[in-house]
């Protein structure tokens, strides 16, 4: 995948994440932080940062529970360590930090 293709795909994914978060009703604020980055802020002032990392062609997530790197496998974004899917992982992370069950849908 070319750098431009990656950036376009990652940016579209970040837009979908923001939309899914809004649709989920999760108790947090989502803000765009520059090109290719989202920040979720929760009532306890904790944050989750989601950003594209163009050099590695990955989407990175930083949360209270740790850091995650997701790489496109041709059909979904997969965690490079445990094979988890991006939206499923974000659902768990957002749910954990918001204190309520959250399901983020990729579509």
Strand fraction: 25-35%
Q: Label the structural class.
A: alpha+beta
Distance between the termini: 22 Å
Gyration radius (Cα, Å) is 13 Å
Strands of the biggest beta sheet: in what spatial order? Answer: 1-2-3-4-5-6
- Average pLDDT for all residues: 93
Count of alpha/pi helices = 2
Q: From N to C, what is the helix and strand string?
A: HEEEEEEH
Q: What's the CATH architecture?
A: 2-Layer Sandwich
| Strand count | 6
The level of helicity is 25-40%
Low-confidence stretches: none
Biggest sheet layout: 6 strands, antiparallel
CATH overall fold name: Metal Transport, Frataxin, Chain A
What's the name of the CATH homologous superfamily? Frataxin/CyaY
Report the top-level CATH class.
Answer: Alpha Beta
Shape: globular
Task: Describe how the helices and strands are arranged.
Blueprint: H1 3-24, E1 28-32, E2 37-42, E3 47-53, E4 58-63, E5 66-72, E6 77-79, H2 86-98
Antiparallel strand pairs: 1-2, 2-3, 3-4, 4-5, 5-6
Task: Please provide a written account of the structure.
The protein is built from 2 helices and 6 strands. With 107 residues, the protein is of the alpha+beta class. It has a single domain, classed as Frataxin/CyaY (Metal Transport, Frataxin, Chain A). It has a 6-stranded antiparallel beta sheet, covered by helices on one side. The mean pLDDT is 93.
């Amino acid at each position: 995948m070319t750098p431009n293709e990656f950036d376009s795909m990652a940016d579209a994914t970040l837009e979908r994440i923001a939309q899914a978060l809004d649709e989920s009703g999760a108790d947090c604020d989502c803000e765009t932080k520059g090109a290719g980055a989202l920040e979720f802020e929760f009532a306890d002032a904790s944050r989750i940062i989601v950003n594209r990392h163009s050099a590695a062609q990955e989407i990175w997530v930083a949360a209270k529970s740790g850091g995650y790197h997701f790489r496109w496998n041709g059909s979904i974004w997969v965690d490079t360590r445990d094979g988890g899917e991006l939206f499923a992982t974000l659902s768990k992370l957002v749910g954990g930090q918001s204190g309520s069950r959250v399901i983020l849908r990729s579509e």
